[in-house]
């Protein structure tokens, strides 16, 4: 079974291929070129793909992939 990190990287590669390399390298979503709308869109994609509830304010442009992984782990544990 893939780890949450691997799942998020796969979703990023499928949905945002141009930005994936920057985010995986540790950049914030903002540094990778995400605006606020794209961050919200990514949250919606995560909810749909992983079938877990996520709040719209849990991820910001200043978040990193590591932050997103922790958010997914927490939501899955509490879900």
Commentary on this structure:
α1 crosses α3 and α1 packs across α4. The chain is globular, with a radius of gyration of 11 Å. The protein is built from four helices and no strands.
Write the SSE topology.
Layout lengths: L3 H12 L1 H8 L11 H15 L14 H14 L1
Helix pairs in contact: 1-2, 1-3, 1-4
SSE class: mainly alpha
How many helical stretches?
4
Shape: globular
Amino- and carboxy-terminal Cα gap: 18 Å
- What proportion of the residues is helical, as a percent range? 55-70%
> Average pLDDT across residues?
91
The biggest beta sheet reads:
none
Strand composition percent: under 5%
Order of helices and strands: HHHH
Low-confidence stretches: none
Rg:
11 Å
Please report the total strand number as a whole number: 0
Label this structure with key terms.
single chain, 79 residues, mainly alpha, 4 helices
């Amino acid at each position: 079974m893939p780890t949450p990190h691997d799942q998020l990287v796969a979703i990023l590669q499928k949905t945002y291929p141009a930005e994936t390399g920057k985010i995986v390298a540790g950049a914030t979503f903002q540094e990778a070129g995400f605006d606020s709308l794209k961050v919200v869109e990514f949250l919606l994609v995560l909810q749909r793909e992983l079938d877990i509830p996520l709040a719209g304010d849990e991820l910001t442009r200043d978040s990193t992939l590591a932050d997103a992984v922790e958010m997914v782990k927490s939501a899955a544990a509490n879900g």
